[in-house]
Description:
The complex is a heterotrimer.
Chain A: H1 3-23, H2 32-57, E1 65-74, E2 79-86, H3 88-111, H4 118-136, H5 141-159, H6 166-197, H7 202-212, H8 218-235, H9 243-246, H10 252-261, H11 266-273, H12 275-280, H13 282-302, H14 309-329, H15 333-360, H16 378-391, H17 398-413, H18 417-443, H19 449-456, H20 491-506, H21 518-527, H22 539-566, H23 570-577, H24 579-586, H25 591-641, H26 646-668
Antiparallel strand pairs in A: 1-2
Helix pairs in contact in A: 1-2, 1-4, 2-3, 2-4, 3-4, 3-10, 3-15, 3-20, 4-5, 5-6, 6-7, 6-8, 8-11, 8-13, 10-15, 11-14, 13-14, 13-18, 14-15, 14-17, 14-18, 15-16, 15-17, 15-20, 15-21, 16-18, 16-20, 17-18, 17-22, 18-22
Chain B: H1 2-24, H2 28-48, H3 52-77, H4 89-111, H5 132-140, H6 144-165
Helix pairs in contact in B: 1-2, 2-3
Chain C: H1 3-23, H2 27-52, H3 56-84
Amino acid sequence: MSATDYGWLVLAFPLAGLLVTSFGWRVLPGRLPGWIASAAIGLAFLAAIGALVQIQDLPADQRSLVDSAWTYAATADLRVDMAIFVDPLSVFMCLVVSGVSFLIHVYSVAYMGGDRGYARYFAYLNYFVFSMLLLVLAANFVILIIGWAFVGAASYLLISFWYRRGTATYAGIKAFVMNVIGDVGLVIATFLLLNETGTVNFRQVFEHAPDVFATDDVTLVFACLLILVGAFAKSAQLPLHTWLPDAMEGPTPVSALIHAATMVTAGVYLIARTHPLFELAPTAADISAVIGTATLLFAATVALVVTDLKRIIAYSTISQIGYMVLGVSVAAYSAGLFHLMTHAFFKALLFMGAGSVIGAMSGIQNIDRMGGFRRAMPFTFVTFTCGALALAAFPLTSGFFSKDEVLAFTLNRGGGFVVLGIVGYVAAALTGFYAFRMVFRVFYGDPVPEARELEDGHLAHHDAANPMTGEAEDTDVGFPGPEHAIAERSWPMKAAMGPLALLALVAGVVQIPGVSDVIENFLEPTFEDSRFRDTAPSEGAEVIGLVVGGLISIAAITVAFTVYLRRRGITLEWRDRFPAVHRFLEHKWYFDELYDAVFVRPAATAGSFGRRVVETDFVQGFIVGGATGIVRVGTSFARAIQTGFLRGYALLLLLGLAALGLYFLIASS
Amino acid sequence: MWFEQVLFFIAGAGALAGALGVVLLRNPFYCVLALVVHLVTLAVLFLLLQAAFLAAAQVVVYAGAVMVLYIFVVAYIGGRDEAMRPDESLITSFGPLFAVAIGVELCFALIGSGLEALDTRGADVGAGFGSPGQIGSLLLRRFLVPFEAASYLLLVAAVGAVVLARRRRGIEEEPPAPGREPAPAETLEVRV
Amino acid sequence: MDVVWFLVLSAFIFVIGAAGVIVRRDPLVILLCLELMLNAGNLALIAFARMHGGQAGQVFALIVMVIAACEVVIGLGIIVAMYRNRLQIDVDEMTELRG
């Protein structure tokens, strides 16, 4: 079987899993839907490995394969095929997506075990993986947009999974609306490119682009900026980031899969895939780098003060994706994608650990109520700390190598990029701090009552309530189930978290500067047309970067250790001394309030104006009422004749006959 | 011949008198009788037009059967003098007016018509014109289909009439009091 | 007599019947006036048959007589049904066609 056959299999298995779980949900007993869905993704992972092997067998310059299933549209000017594109970049993404998805599916089998919507959950999850794989395997902009839209729909379905919870449905709508803004940008960009180059196929667009566009051509910059709109909406960068923290309303494995490891990386993939266009329009690439940097700083500051465990991790996701965006914008493609891979590992792991802790807390997510779980949950503690170390870029972890490679590239570009690199290091310090803020607040300190109960051997139980607003709920379908799962008691969760912890620690070995460059060599065929091939930093610069990054990380962890363990309570003093700063950060730099005032309120006012004046008064009253009034008046004439008076009708008959006779008499004379 | 002209005028006067009697007499029974007179005089006119068979059919079928049926129904329902309603003036004035207008138009058409044959006594016809034999042979040869259709129509009408007027079980069949108003519903007054 | 006299007479009878339909309120009498009009038509048909010398007109008139008989039968059946259902035998009271 060729690589493209494996590519089709990668798509087929999740689709089959989706169909089986969604149509057979009534007949599949117990946890079987979960195992079927996991098996589907596991097979997809194996198929991706098969594609990898096949691709590597080919000579390096022939590793871009396109295979078309059928022609969707073939007109004089445009040809759109249902085609997949199998090359190192898409195989890399398939491996990451299917591999991490498989582990998250296994985790979910246990985690969602008590939920009434079990089969629906796995159907949605398989649908998401299918859409994501379709996105990364797309060979032209049309399939990309299809996958893009499907992924947005899957995100909405999964965020609002507990659909009876009001906050969840609002969050789903918010995410969907912002995703649609991105979709619009992407579609318009496709139109612009189609208009100029005459095709939507990736390979042809990228080949023709240098002929059609001059460097920094206005149309191309505009198209690239619109692609960025799409990428930033999907990857939650400024200013389209507000949906991601609210998306934590979804179940924790969903947060792990979609909003950490895979969907939010779609924007990064998009920029990497369209890199020839961005290299032809350096203005757009520079704007992207600046926004990525601003995002990573912003999110790191907010993660310092939020108190919901999942939201801390969400802001750290936004921040880390800022690093990835920065990486692919400065043409450090393999570095950015390497960070994508390591981030998928440790972020999914962090979410899984958070899910375990929240299960022990019986649904409570506020870290102010957590503490001292170290003895009660040893496995969770160890794996969570592995993930936090990788997030903080502690020396020799995977995050260490990937993040510092991105920053080394950035600094090496020189000029204004040095500023971006420095901001990146500052944010790395903040990252290390808040990562261990989580670890120390949750696992160290005096054990809270729930931790004590767990040490005694039984799981705490609280009445079901909304973790954000506190309002009471029940445990029927549409709300979380009554049972909570923790890693120590379910082997599927352990089976998923264990490998990820290992990968978070050691996955960096594939790309150690000067020693190994597996990722870079693998992705080489895709990015060999890059103009910035020769701007890679020297080994010496990279090693210096690693040393600096390692020192920053260790310093940040030490500061966190001091603040949270040695000098407890000092954070409360800081909060009282700088209330304005604290409020500013706690309200997430007031972005939500800004959007509410600028977009939501005017839209609501326009809507109510439309309903009151336009719909009720104008359309109903004037147009509809006027039309019906005219008809009513007109027909009242006809009604006056219908008296029901038989003799009157007969009289009219006679009258007609007389008139007719008169007419014929006159006509014949 | 002069004899025929005299007969025509007498029969015509009788027909018109019968027609006016139908329209103007108040008691429906007298109207039916006026129509019978009209039908018989019309039969005389048919005879003058050499339609012997039709004259006989008119008397036997029309006046003899249909009008007898009519008299039965009038007897069953009960004739009563119809009162003139006060607000009828519009109808009673315009109706005859339009009818007269039609009549005038028809007369214009007939008298001023360009058909010259109208002013003659008609074409030359043989001896058996209008006899049952010739009508019969026409009915059974050239006009067979209308003949059969008409018989079918009679069957349908007979069945329809039976269905329309049959007694329904369970419905009280008390005929209302003479006056032909519907019987007032009886109410049961309970005095405590 | 000339044919035209018969035709004029038939026109008069027709007109009288039409006026009767409008003027009278008793459905029985209205049916009778309808019979008047049909008979006027018959007279005209037979007059024309005499004029042309063909007997098709007479056959036509015969069929018209049959139809008139059927119509009377049904009309009387309706009136009897009205009477049975305690309705007023007066065309002015039958306003179901109103509206």
